[in-house]
Amino acid sequence: MASIPNRNLIPSDINTWERLIGWAMSVGFNLMGNLQIPIFPNEPMSQQAVVNTIVAQDGRKYWQCICYLPYNYETMNGPAKPWMSINNVTEAQPHENFTSN
Prior knowledge:
Blueprint: H1 17-32, E1 36-37, E2 46-47, E3 49-55, E4 61-67, H2 73-76
Antiparallel strand pairs: 1-2, 3-4
């Protein structure tokens, strides 16, 4: 994925960890939602990023986000932070809707 050219591109109204995760997953879907990867043998290709809304059995509404990120096995098991082992997927930049309030 392309580098974040300016950390100020993260909208200023994101004020909780949950919203930051939701924003990051939305950007991931924007950048990777059309990419396909082979997750299971003998199964159709799967989207690399998926965002859905679901209603649980108790009636609560959830936003489901799934993203498959390739990583470097050697560095993932080393002393570095695990997220630093994630490999780039694309050099695309997110749509401007993701960088404003």
